[in-house]
Amino acid sequence: MKKFYLETFGCQMNVHDSEKVVGTLESRGYEQVETVEAADLVLYNTCSIRDKAEQKVFHRLDQFKRSGKDKLFGVLGCVAQQEGEKIFDKAPHVSLVVGSASYSKLPELLVQLETGSRHVTGLSLDTDETFETPLTRRDNPHRAFITIIEGCDKSCSYCVVPFTRGPERSRASASVIEEAHQLAAAGYSEIQLLGQNVNSYRDPSPEGWDFSRLLEAVGHVPGVRRVRFTTSHPRDFVKEIIDAIDRTGTLCNMVHLPVQSGSTRVLAAMDRQYTRDQYMQRIAWMKNARREIAISTDIIVGFPGETEEDFAQTMSLLDEVEYDSIFSFKYSVRPNTPALALGDHIPEEEKSRRLTVLQEHQRAIQLRRNTKLIGSEQEALVEGFNSSTGQWIGRTSQNRVLNFTAPPREDGIVPERKSVIGRYVPVRVLRAGPNSLAGECRAAL
Ligand code: 5AD
Ligand code: SF4
């Protein structure tokens, strides 16, 4: 049997694409192995969102090469789409380059390789099919991703995604709902709806559902206990989404709403299509919701032309919103993006300084917000057990990590970990750090 090794780098879209690739290959008689050495086919699903991610790809490909000859090497994902055939020059041991819009063709492309083609590519972006496959091999037994929309039609000036993942293609609502039913029946209780911009979901079928309608319908699928979605663009984020969360207990009270900058001037240069005030309007909807909604965001520092004053506005936005978590990055020039023409004149040290200032400030905000939860009771989905601390690892609806202990059972039986993982249990919060909570479950598990 042919053996393949697959390594994944990048966002959740990439992680989920890899699950589909595994399912597709397994259905063709390939077996997944855990090491490069044991494989005949070595695949690397890559990310090109920032320069560092891309450099890592070539470094890693080099390491793969040293692990053995007589293997086929393939590059998948965003670097594949971005660099295309140039990869064959940069990494001559690679013979397969396939972008995310062409994974459904993977089996055919592999046949071409096996029948002697030296270089094979799948780079077309003009696809109107989404990569829907019943063959997905999911990694987590309790939480499953469902792609609802692929690609991106925005033109944020710093971003490679419209180039690497192509134009938006939404998936029919009936197909999404059917997959949610199947997943629930198979024991998955948490569903995460995925897309580069889930808010611009437009049902291509006659039902014509928008995102909030779809979200609520997934929340009503029997057996589904938690629904999350990522990622959202503020411009398309409508109040109906918050109304749906208010009405539907299974929709998690958390929203990831990338802002990128607190300065309206920088937002315009980034072509984000909203002002700070418009963004704050969306935040106000969340703050006025019935349940408290955890809010997270993405921020870029050091975008070309970002002044001290612009940066100060991003800092003040952190205080105004009081995010529950942020992902923050130094601006990185990307090929094929409009901002390439703007240059990159904020010195690296200054970018690093701004990033550190931002992250330290946010750390204090998070500690403050998490501390407020001490004494509260949270429902945790048990995700694992940490043998070194003797604590269960749980996750709250707001996506916080909640480590906890539980009293021993009266009958003295130590529960099998497998039987506890995946359960939802009530946990009293006793301590808080900037990145996690700790507590205890009152009842034995
Ligand atoms: N440089 C730095 N960060 C970027 N992101 C996207 N493109 C770039 C870039 N060129 C960040 C944005 C986005 C997140 C996924 O990555 O914050 O929301
Ligand atoms: Fe990276 Fe963007 Fe591609 Fe995801 S879509 S893997 S973040 S470049």
Q: What spatial form do the alpha-carbon principal axes imply?
A: globular
The secondary-structure class comes to alpha/beta
Q: Sheet with the most strands? A: 6 strands, parallel
Tell me which CATH architecture of the largest domain applies here.
Answer: Alpha-Beta Horseshoe
Strand content: 15-25%
N- to C-terminal distance: 42 Å
What gyration radius follows from the Cα positions, in whole Å? 23 Å
Domains counted in the coordinates: how many?
A: 3
If helices are DSSP runs of H or I spanning 4 or more residues, what is the number of helices?
14
Can you offer a commentary on this structure?
- The protein has 14 helices and 19 strands.
- With 445 residues, the protein is α/β, with parallel strands linked by helices.
- It has helices spanning 12-27, 51-66, 77-83, 86-90, 106-114, 161-165, 173-185, 211-219, 239-247, 264-269, 276-287, 308-321, 348-371, 417-420; strands at residues 3-8, 31-32, 41-46, 72-76, 94-98, 120-122, 143-147, 149-150, 169-170, 190-194, 226-230, 254-256, 294-301, 325-330, 377-386, 391-395, 401-405, 424-432, 436-441.
- The strands form 5 sheets. It has a 6-stranded parallel sheet, sandwiched between helices. The protein has a 5-stranded mixed barrel with strand order 15-16-17-19-18. It has a 3-stranded parallel sheet with strand order 7-10-11, sandwiched between helices.
- The model has no long low-confidence stretch (mean pLDDT 94).
- It folds into 3 domains: 3-127, 3-Layer(aba) Sandwich (Rossmann fold), CATH 3.40.50.12160; 129-371, pyruvate-formate lyase- activating enzyme (Alpha-Beta Horseshoe); 377-440, OB fold (Dihydrolipoamide Acetyltransferase, E2P) (Beta Barrel).
- Bound molecules: 5'-deoxyadenosine and iron/sulfur cluster.
